[in-house]
Design brief:
The complex is a heterodimer of chains A (about 280) and B (about 290). By secondary structure, chain A is mostly helical. Chain A has helices spanning about 10-35, 40, 55-65, 75-105, 110-120, 130-140, 145-150, 160-165, 170-180, 185-195, 200-215, 215-220, 230-240, 250-270, 270-280. In chain B, a hairpin with a 6-residue loop joins strand 1 and strand 2 (about 50). The chains are: A mainly alpha (about 280), B mainly alpha (about 290).
Chain lengths: ~280, ~290
C-alpha cells in the first residue's frame, strides 16, 4: 500500500485468517465426522481429529448404500448429478452460441422479436413458475428422465447475452476477410468464431457446471425413482430420518462427496471461474 | 442494437435460433402463462370443474394473515442476509486487496462456499447446530442458552441466516475484490499525498467508487435470498417452527405441493413474478447507466 505501517500487515492477515477459519470450519468438521463411528458422533463427543472409520464409511456410502437411511448408494446419485451438470452446461452453451450467432451475424425477419423473446427469459428463475413447469414436463413424459432434469433449466438467456456481447466486439474486417476467402456462414463459425470464443465457453462451462450440480428444487420435484436422484437431494433424505436414527457419519460423507466436484472445479479453474462469474452476471 | 447483417442466409438463421426459441417457449412461456391463467381460476375439491373468478384468488390471498407473515419473514431474512454477507464480503475483499504474502491462498479458500450447494451448506450447519450432538449447539447450551431451532422461531431464523450468509460471502467477496481492483491506484495515491489516512481514504474515496458494485450486489443478494435459499430452508427448518422461516417462495412451494389450492398458489407465483421482474428491470436500468462511466 501507499505508506509504511508500523505493524506491517498484521491486521489483514488476522482478518483473512478469521475469514478462512469461518469458511473452512464447517467443511473440516464434515470431513472429520465422516471418519468417526456414529455412536461417537451421536454422543456429541466427537474429537477434532480424524477417526479410523473413513474407508468403511465411504465404501458404504458410495457403493453399497447403508440399510437404514440411504435407500440407494451415493455413487449412482453422483453419476446422475454429473450427467445433469454436464448436460446443463453443454446444452445451454450449445443452444446459446448458435442463437447469439444468428442474432449478431444475420439479418432476417423477426430478428428483434426473437432477441426479445429470448431476452425476457432472464427475468424469471424456474422457482417462480415451478408447478406449471412441472406439469408441462410431466405432460411431455419427462419425469424421471435426464431430459426432464436438463431441458427446463437451460431455458434462460444469460449465456446468449454473454455470447452476443462478445460477438459484437469481433471486428467486421475479420468477417469480410473470411468472406473474401470464400467462407460461408458455417465455415466462418467453425474456423474463426468458435476458436475465438474458447475462453468464454470454458468460463461459462465452469459456472454452469456448478449451477447444475447444485440444483435443488427442480430435481426434488421431478425425480421420484431412487435411481434418478441427484446427490444434493439424496443428502436431504439421509438427514430426514428421525433424529436418533440419522447416520451422521454417512450424512457427512455424502456432504463431502457432494461438495467435492464443484469445489474442485472452482479451485482448479479459479481464473476462468471468476471471469465467467463476473461476465455472466453483468 | 447495431445490425451487422453480414450473412444473408434464408433458412440458416432460423435454424440456428430455433433450439433456444423452442426451449424458451416450452419451458418458460408456456408455464408462465399457465401460472397466470391458473391464478384466475378456482377448482373444485375433486378437480372436476374449474370456474373463472377474476381476482378472487388474489383478494383471498391478500386477506390471509399468513401471507403478510411470509412477506415479513422474507423482508427480515433478506435484510439480515444482505447486510451481513455484504459487510463481511467487503471487509475480506479490502483486506485481500492488499499486497500481502499468501494473499492468493486466502482468496482461494474464501471462494469455496460459492461451490457448495445451499442444501449441502445447510446440512453442514445442521450438524453443528443440532441440539445434543452439534458442537456449537452444545457450546451454547453450556453457556445457558436453551438452543433449539426446532421449537424456537428466532433460533430457526438465526440458523437459516447463518447458513445463507456463509453461502453468499464468496460471491460478494469476489465482486467487491473485482470492484476494488478496478479503482485506479493513482486516485488513492493522490489522496495519500494529500494526507488522508487509510480509514478516511476508504470512506471518502474507495467506498463511493465502489457504490455501483454495492448497488448491484444488493439487488443480486435480494434475488439470491428469494430463490436460492429455498434449499437451505427446506433442509434446515422446513419453514417452521410455525411459519417462522417461511418465505414467499417457500410458501408457493409448500402450498403447491400440498396441492389443495392451485389457484392461490398460482396467484402467489404471479405476485412473485411481478416482484422479480421489477427487481431485474431496476437492475438493468442501473447497470446500463453504469456502463457510461
Amino acid at each position: 500500500m501507499v505508506e509504511h505501517r508500523r505493524f506491517g500487515n498484521l491486521l489483514p492477515h488476522l482478518v483473512l485468517l478469521a475469514g478462512v477459519a469461518i469458511v473452512a470450519f464447517p467443511v473440516y468438521l464434515a470431513v472429520i465426522a465422516s471418519t468417526h463411528d456414529n455412536t461417537v458422533i451421536a454422543n456429541g463427543q466427537m474429537p477434532l481429529y480424524p477417526g479410523s472409520h473413513a474407508i468403511e464409511t465411504y465404501w458404504n456410502t458410495i457403493v453399497s448404500g447403508t440399510g437404514k437411511t440411504t435407500r440407494a448408494p451415493v455413487g449412482g446419485m453422483m453419476l446422475n448429478s454429473l450427467i445433469m451438470a454436464l448436460g446443463i452446461a453443454a446444452g445451454k452453451i450449445a443452444i446459446s452460441i448458435i442463437s447469439a450467432y444468428a442474432i449478431v451475424f444475420f439479418s432476417f425477419r423477426f430478428r428483434m422479436t426473437a432477441f426479445w423473446t429470448i431476452f425476457i427469459t432472464l427475468m424469471l428463475p424456474v422457482e417462480v413458475r415451478i408447478f406449471p413447469t412441472y406439469k408441462i414436463t410431466s405432460d411431455l413424459h419427462m419425469l424421471d428422465s435426464y431430459a426432464g432434469l436438463i431441458l427446463p433449466l437451460i431455458a434462460s438467456a444469460t449465456a446468449t447475452l454473454l455470447f452476443r456481447q462478445f460477438f459484437m466486439t469481433v471486428p467486421k474486417e475479420l468477417v469480410e476477410a473470411s468472406k473474401i476467402d470464400g467462407a460461408g456462414p458455417i465455415r466462418f463459425f467453425w474456423d474463426t468464431l468458435l476458436p475465438l470464443s474458447v475462453t468464454n465457453i470454458a468460463a461459462l462451462f465452469v459456472i454452469l457446471f456448478i449451477y447444475g450440480w447444485n440444483q435443488y428444487l427442480w430435481p426434488l420435484l421431478i425425480t421420484t425413482r431412487d435411481d434418478m436422484q441427484t446427490i444434493v437431494i439424496g443428502i436431504k433424505k439421509i438427514i430426514d430420518v428421525h433424529d436418533a436414527l440419522t447416520e451422521w457419519q454417512v450424512a457427512m460423507a455424502t456432504a463431502v462427496l457432494a461438495m467435492l466436484p464443484p469445489v474442485a472445479v472452482v479451485v482448479l479453474m479459479q481464473r476462468l471461474f471468476v471471469k465467467g462469474l463476473i461476465e455472466t452476471e453483468k | 442494437m447495431e445490425n451487422r447483417a453480414i450473412f444473408s442466409g434464408k433458412l440458416l438463421p432460423y435454424l440456428l435460433i430455433l433450439p433456444q426459441l423452442a426451449v424458451s417457449l416450452i419451458f418458460f412461456y408456456w408455464p408462465a402463462l399457465q401460472a397466470l391463467q391458473q391464478s384466475f381460476l378456482v377448482q373444485d375439491a375433486f378437480g372436476l370443474s374449474t370456474e373463472f373468478v377474476w381476482f378472487e384468488n388474489y383478494i383471498n390471498l391478500l386477506q390471509t394473515p399468513e401471507y403478510y407473515h411470509a412477506i415479513a419473514v422474507t423482508f427480515v431474512f433478506s435484510a439480515l442476509v444482505a447486510f451481513f454477507s455484504l459487510t463481511i464480503g467487503l471487509l475480506l475483499a479490502v483486506m485481500a486487496n492488499r499486497n500481502i504474502r499468501g494473499v492468493q491462498i486466502y482468496r482461494t479458500f474464501l471462494i469455496v462456499p460459492y461451490a457448495v450447494a445451499p442444501a449441502v451448506a445447510s446440512v453442514l450447519f445442521i450438524f453443528m447446530f443440532q441440539p445434543g450432538l452439534g458442537m456449537i449447539a452444545r457450546a451454547l447450551q453450556r453457556n445457558g442458552i436453551d438452543w433449539n431451532p426446532v421449537l424456537n422461531g428466532t433460533h430457526a431464523m438465526i440458523l437459516v441466516v447463518v447458513v445463507a450468509v456463509w453461502n453468499q460471502i464468496s460471491y460478494n467477496f469476489l465482486f467487491f475484490l473485482a470492484g476494488l481492483q478496478a479503482i485506479p491506484r493513482s486516485v488513492i495515491e493522490a489522496a495519500a499525498i494529500d494526507g488522508a489516512k487509510p480509514m478516511r481514504r476508504f470512506w471518502t474515496i474507495i467506498f463511493p467508487l465502489l457504490s455501483p458494485t454495492t448497488f448491484f450486489l444488493i439487488i443480486v443478494n435480494i434475488t439470491y435470498v428469494f430463490f436460492n435459499t429455498l434449499g437451505i430452508i427446506d433442509t434446515a427448518t422446513g419453514g417452521g417452527p410455525n411459519g417462522a422461516t417461511q418465505t414467499l417462495v417457500y410458501k408457493v412451494f409448500q402450498d403447491g405441493k400440498v396441492g389443495t389450492d392451485l389457484g392461490g398458489s398460482a396467484a402467489q407465483s404471479v405476485i412473485l413474478m411481478v416482484i422479480v421482474v421489477a427487481l431485474t428491470a431496476f437492475q438493468f436500468r442501473y447497470v446500463e447507466k453504469k456502463v457510461h462511466y
